[in-house]
Specification:
about 250 residues; alpha/beta; TIM Barrel; eight-stranded parallel beta barrel; 10 helices; globular; binds orotidine-5'-monophosphate; decarboxylase
Length: about 250
């Protein structure tokens, strides 16, 4: 399975290839990868993704398109996404068993068809922008952590490589899903940054201690006055947490 020695992935949420490429270069030394999502992909497609990655020495890309559709459609989308050579792709766990199994199968097909390494397929559990009230309003009456656990266990049964969750659920999932199940954690906020629209947040050090494999950090770095300095500051916090000095 692909290993990510540097767990910091910087979210480049922009519709602009030049801006994404410039930001990727600014954070290249500090980050282990970048995340490109819907705002970027809808504007630029797989070619734009390749452009950004190639400009930064084939930096690993988490292609965050959060597919949620019937199994056949999601499978086709995953096969097509492989053309962009992502290291990681994702689907919504709430899409269910058949959809998640189809996504995993399609990641093998797509990788073979495009002659690329198979991307890890992750399942999004409960978005980090949602709290208990938001979840209840969607008709789910169980607690956020119970819902995250249920979806993660289902995802693991389907052969999914890991989940996107908040750091608040990371320790529970590490215990329930074992050491090889990837835990990708957005909603990471250093003590010095703004919360924005995120609700279930933790600092980089707290998230790593809770068991996160990858930390997705966007605006605290990309909206900083000095993005390079901000990325290095987060990377330093990560190194301190990894060495046990934080
Ligand atoms: O799948 C994701 O990456 C994701 C899942 C989730 O639950 N919460 C979440 O914030 N994200 C993404 O992670 C990034 C977080 O960005 P910042 O809030 O700017 O750090 C955004 O690009 C979101 O789309």
């Amino acid at each position: 399975m692909t290993a990510f020695p540097n767990p910091l992935f910087v979210a480049l949420d922009t519709p602009d290839v030049a801006e994404a490429t410039t930001m990727a270069a600014k954070v290249a030394e500090a980050a282990g990868g970048v995340k490109l999502g819907l705002e970027f992909f809808v504007a630029n497609g797989p070619k734009g993704v390749r452009e950004v990655s190639k400009a930064s020495d084939d930096v690993p890309v988490f292609l965050d398109l959060k597919f949620h559709d019937i199994p056949n459609t999601v499978a086709g989308a995953i096969r097509s996404a492989c053309a962009a050579r992502p290291a990681i792709v994702n689907v919504h766990g709430a899409g269910g068993r058949d959809m998640m199994k189809a996504a995993v199968d399609a990641s093998h097909d797509g990788a073979a068809r495009h002659l690329v390494t198979r991307p890890l397929v992750l399942a999004v559990t409960v978005l980090t922008s949602m709290d208990q009230t938001d979840l209840s309003e969607t008709g789910v009456s169980r607690s956020v952590s119970d819902q995250v656990l249920e979806l993660a266990l289902l995802a693991r049964e389907c052969g999914i490589d890991g989940v996107v969750c908040s750091a608040h659920e990371a320790a529970m999932l590490r215990e329930a899903c074992g050491p090889n199940f990837k835990l990708i954690v957005p909603g990471v906020r250093p003590a010095w940054s703004a919360t924005n629209d995120q609700k279930r947040i933790m600092t980089p050090a707290e998230a790593l201690h809770a068991g996160a494999d990858i930390l997705v950090v966007g605006r605290p770095i990309t909206a900083a006055v000095e993005p390079t300095a901000a990325a290095h500051r987060v990377a330093q916090e990560i190194r301190h947490a990894q060495s046990g000095s934080l």
